[in-house]
Amino acid sequence: MADLTSAVEERAQRASLLTYRRGTTADVPAFRALGEAVVPPTYGPIDAAYAQRMLDEWWVPERFEASLAVNTHLVAECDGEVVAMAAFGLLSRSHREFPHVAGEREVMWKLYVHPDHHGRGIGSRLLAEVEALVEGDELWLEVVEGNEQAFRFYAARGFTEAERIGDRAWPDDVWMVKRLR
Ligand SMILES: CC(C)(COP(=O)(O)OP(=O)(O)OC[C@H]1O[C@@H](n2cnc3c(N)ncnc32)[C@H](O)[C@@H]1OP(=O)(O)O)[C@@H](O)C(=O)NCCC(=O)NCCS
């Protein structure tokens, strides 16, 4: 019992050091550093070339600056250091093409927690913040085929698989959706 109590206290103490806020262009270097820490262990085991492509195409300053102009970014900090981020916005504002989609979608484009901080409730908290801020009735997201930990995380929080999109050159994108209200 004493062990359990101290574990709960320790968790609460660590959690109290966390703060959440909106992301800005000042966070771009921290976003890049977060990507370097979290992208290789997440996607390397699925497809190492894909993991590298992600870092090169999606985790670069130009891409973050473009995203910050049209999407909302949320940041979790621990002791002043960015340890997680989420980004969401309208599909129509993405520079990517989505020929399979008719109409508009609110999409969470990113939810990434530094590996040293997994399992502390940060991802759940950021997702809850995103769901509260989204204006539409649904929230969509893409999970890379094979990212089972993230798929289970989203499924446990009410997301269901809606479609799989792929070109066979890279792992499929599994689209998931959750009705919010
Ligand atoms: C998926 C991810 C965002 C979840 O964030 P998180 O802060 O670890 O999530 P939480 O702590 O809120 O919850 C994690 C869940 O895994 C469990 N867990 C426990 N220890 C864990 C650990 N060391 N690592 C991961 N999950 C752990 C938690 O108990 C919880 O389970 P639950 O669903 O039964 O509540 C995070 O693991 C991550 O960044 N993964 C790599 C990047 C990624 O795949 N992002 C999603 C792209 S679509």
UniProtKB/TrEMBL annotation:
It comes from the Bacteria. Keywords: Acyltransferase, Transferase. Residues 18-181 form the N-acetyltransferase domain. CDD domains: NAT_SF (cd04301). Gene3D superfamilies: 3.40.630.30. One of its GO terms (molecular function) is acyltransferase activity. It holds the Pfam family Acetyltransf_1. Its EC number is 2.3.-.-. InterPro entries: Acyl_CoA_acyltransferase (IPR016181), Bact_Acetyltransf (IPR050832), GNAT_dom (IPR000182). PANTHER family: AMINOALKYLPHOSPHONATE N-ACETYLTRANSFERASE-RELATED-RELATED. This is GNAT family N-acetyltransferase.
